[in-house]
Specification:
332 residues; Rossmann fold; 12 helices; 32% helix
C-alpha cells in the first residue's frame, strides 16, 4: 500500500490529478483522510506519480491505527523497510483527532528498538507519521521539492510575462488530461503549460496570436531543455487550419482573462466560444481538455453546448478581482 500527501489549496483537484495518474499506471485510490490518500498499485504507478504537480510527497504506507497506543503496538510488530539511519517526522493535518505531541519520540524509540539507528540531521530514511481522523505511519519515497516548481515561475524564465499560471497548476492541468504522448496549448502565451508538459517528455504543440509570444515561448522551452515542440503563430479559433488533418490526444490551456491587451481586440465570450468549438474539432474522441475560465463565464454550459462532457470542475480564488474555474472535459 502507498500513501500520497496532496496539497491543500484545491484538494479535490489535487486528488483528481492523482486519480488521473493512477489510471495511467493501473493503480487506484482506496481511501482518503483529508490530504492523505491511500493508494494501491504496482511498480507501474511510480513514473506516473512522479509527474504530480499538486502533491507534497508519496511513500510506502506501513501502518495505520485508531489511537496512538495501537499505532505504537503495530509499529513494534512490523519489519520496517528502513535503509540506513532514520528520523520520524509528523504531519498534523487540520482534522487531526489525536494527541500526538510526543509521537515522534515514542515512534522513534519503538523503531530504534528493532535495531535501526536514529540520525536527526541527515537521516537516510524519513519515517512520516500523519494525524487525521486516524493515524498513519510510512516511509517517504519521493518528495516534490517546491524549489523545482518555484524555479520555473514566470520571473525566473528568460522570456517573462506576468500572466502565467503557477507551474504546479500548469502541471496539474496537463496531468488531468491524462496525456501520454502529446499536448496542445492553443493560447500558449510564454509557454508555461508547455514547459511543464515538455519536462514530462510529452511532445508539445503551441499556438499564440502574437509573434513575440511565439518567439518567447520557444526561448523558454529551450531554456528548460525542451526540444520536441511545434509552435505556430495563429488563431485559437481556427486550429484545424493551423494543423490540417491532425487530431490531438489532449489540450490544456489558460485563455486570456479579458484585458484588451491579451484579447487582441476580440470580444471575450465570443473568443472563448469559438475557441471551444475549434478545440472540439481538433481533439480526438475520448481526448481530454483542461481549461481555465474566469468565474463570470459559464464554462460548463458553454463546453457542453459544443459537445464536451464535463469530467469535473474546480474553483480557485486568485485575488480580489479574479476568481476562476478549472474545467476538465472529455470529447465524446
Ligand atoms: C493568459 S495568456 C496564457 C498564459 C500561458 N498559459 C502561460 O503560462 O504563459 C493568454 C495568451 O493568449 C493569447 N491569445 C489571445 N487571443 C488569442 C487567439 N485568438 N488565438 C491564440 N492566442 C491568443 C495572448 O496573446 C496571450 O499570450
Amino acid at each position: 500500500m502507498l500513501y500520497v500527501e496532496i496539497l491543500g489549496n484545491i484538494p479535490e483537484m489535487a486528488r483528481d490529478e492523482v486519480k488521473a495518474m493512477l489510471e495511467l499506471g493501473e493503480g487506484r485510490i482506496t481511501g482518503q483522510d483529508y490530504l492523505l490518500l491511500k493508494v494501491e498499485g504496482g511498480e507501474k504507478v511510480f513514473p506516473h506519480l512522479d509527474r504530480l504537480g499538486l502533491a507534497h510527497e508519496y511513500g510506502l504506507l506501513v501502518v495505520e491505527a485508531d489511537s496512538v497506543g495501537e499505532l505504537l503496538k503495530r509499529t513494534g510488530k512490523i519489519d520496517w523497510p528502513i535503509e540506513g539511519t532514520f528520523k520520524v517526522d509528523t504531519e498534523t493535518m487540520t482534522n487531526c483527532k489525536h494527541e500526538i505531541l510526543d509521537l515522534p519520540r515514542k515512534l522513534g524509540s519503538v523503531i530504534h528498538a528493532q535495531g535501526f539507528k536514529v540520525d536527526l540531521s541527515k537521516p537516510d530514511t524519513l519515517v512520516r507519521a500523519y494525524c487525521g481522523e486516524r493515524l498513519y505511519a510510512g516511509v517517504r519515497l519521493h518528495f516534490f521539492d517546491p524549489k523545482d516548481f518555484e524555479g520555473r515561475k514566470a520571473h525566473h524564465r528568460p522570456f517573462f510575462r506576468p500572466i502565467s499560471l503557477h507551474p504546479r497548476f500548469s502541471r496539474a492541468l496537463v496531468n488531468l488530461t491524462k496525456a501520454r504522448k502529446e499536448i496542445l496549448d492553443p493560447f500558449m502565451g510564454a509557454g508555461g503549460i508547455l514547459m511543464e508538459a515538455g519536462l514530462l517528455g510529452l511532445k508539445v504543440y503551441g499556438v499564440d496570436i502574437k509573434p513575440e509570444m511565439v518567439e518567447g515561448a520557444e526561448m523558454n522551452l529551450r531554456h528548460y531543455g525542451i526540444r520536441d515542440y511545434v509552435l505556430k503563430l495563429g488563431d485559437a479559433t481556427r486550429l484545424e487550419e493551423l494543423f490540417p488533418r491532425k487530431k490531438f490526444e489532449a489540450i490544456a490551456t489558460d485563455p486570456p482573462y479579458g484585458t484588451s491587451a491579451t484579447l487582441a481586440g476580440r470580444r471575450r465570450d465570443e473568443l472563448y466560444r469559438k475557441a471551444l468549438e475549434s478545440m472540439h474539432r481538433v481533439l480526438k474522441h475520448g481526448g481530454r481538455l483542461a481549461i481555465a475560465f474566469p468565474a463570470d463565464f459559464d464554462g460548463e454550459a458553454e463546453g457542453e453546448a459544443v459537445g464536451f462532457r464535463l469530467v469535473n470542475k474546480y474553483y480557485q480564488r486568485v485575488h480580489k478581482s479574479l476568481d476562476r474555474w478549472f474545467y476538465v472535459f472529455e470529447r465524446v
